[in-house]
Design goal:
8 strands, alpha/beta, eight-stranded mixed β-sheet, TIM Barrel, 317 residues
Length: 317
């Protein structure tokens, strides 16, 4: 059973992009953490990083594509890229909503003392990874002491207004399962997160987004070591939910890599599966022509369509 044959059996046909609302920019693999579930294989020893010429070209094309509403910046730790703030400032100048995919602990890194103030002034929405509300589970996935530093950062964000009701400063958290399983129902888990973080640490946030771990890169290697790779892939395939198809993020998103190549999503980017019939940002004059393109799919796409579905915005159905 393949993802393509599964689509055909449900009468779905080839996936196509319906519109371009979100421009997701992966500025590189440099990160201050090296998480076990990371599909990017990011870490402190990685050197791949977007240069200024590429960042400027991305903004020039954005200016020519008024239908894009949101610029979603990810990494690695995107804030460590020297062009991160330029991308934010120029996107905001064009009146785009900007999302920062933040690992929280980057706010405490040397030379990032003014980062929180910058994000607040630019009204950047923050989607932050916190794979559990307990120290044991977070440190197991992300490294010793990461939970404590994450809580410190969340408190700083709350003090700046992020996550506070009525503030207009978006702070959402992301949950990833600790092992080879699907995420639990998003709303119920969100209630647990809010209760534990409020009662134990005085932390507030907006939404919890549950995201299925993709069997790619570092998480795939972990599954192989545990002898669970085939079992997990079968779980994803057996859990296919056709109701997720119309909500898939790739149908309204374009992904750009640190070197300017074009992809249908960040997962395809990490697998080296470029957008079909497209090359890089140097081959187009705007992002508009990518609307209605066929989407490059593979068996990893079962990860987004399993159970209640998964995307960068959390549960799909």
């Amino acid at each position: 059973m393949t993802f393509v044959s599964t689509l055909e059996s449900h009468g779905c046909g080839a996936l196509r992009r319906e519109r371009i609302e979100i421009l997701q920019i992966n500025v590189g693999k440099v990160c201050n953490q090296a998480c076990h579930h990371c599909h990017v294989d990011a870490g402190p020893k990685r050197t791949e990083s977007m240069d200024r010429r590429t960042a400027d070209r991305i903004i020039a094309l954005l200016q020519n594509t008024p239908e894009v509403e949101t610029v979603d910046i990810t990494g690695g730790a995107p804030e460590l890229n020297p062009n991160f703030r330029t991308l934010v400032e120029e996107s905001r100048r064009l009146e785009k909503r900007v999302i920062d995919r933040c690992n929280l602990t980057v706010l405490l890194e040397p030379e990032q003392e003014d980062l929180l103030d910058f994000l607040r002034k630019q009204q950047v929405a923050i989607i932050a990874s916190l794979p559990c509300y307990t120290a044991e589970n977070v440190d197991k996935q992300r490294g010793r002491g990461v939970f404590e530093r994450s809580i410190r950062s969340l408190r700083l964000l709350n003090e700046a207004g992020y996550g506070k009701p009525g503030s207009g400063m978006q702070l959402d958290l992301v949950f990833n399962p600790g092992g080879a399983s699907l995420p639990p129902p998003q709303q119920a888990l969100e209630r647990e997160y809010k209760h534990h973080l409020r009662e134990n640490f005085g932390v507030e946030f907006g939404r919890l987004l549950t995201i299925t771990n993709m069997p790619i890169s570092r998480f795939s290697d972990q599954l192989v070591r545990l002898g669970k790779q085939e079992q997990y892939r079968q779980l994803l395939a057996n859990s296919f939910n056709p109701e997720t198809i119309e909500h898939l993020m790739c149908r309204s998103l374009i992904s750009i890599s640190w070197d300017g190549k074009l992809y249908d999503c960040d997962f395809n980017q990490m697998l080296g599966m470029p957008a079909m019939r497209r090359g890089s940002i140097w081959d187009i004059d705007s992002y508009s022509p990518l609307a209605r393109d066929e989407i490059h799919v593979g068996n990893h796409c079962f990860g987004c369509t399993a159970g209640a579905g998964s995307s960068c915005g959390g549960q799909l159905s």
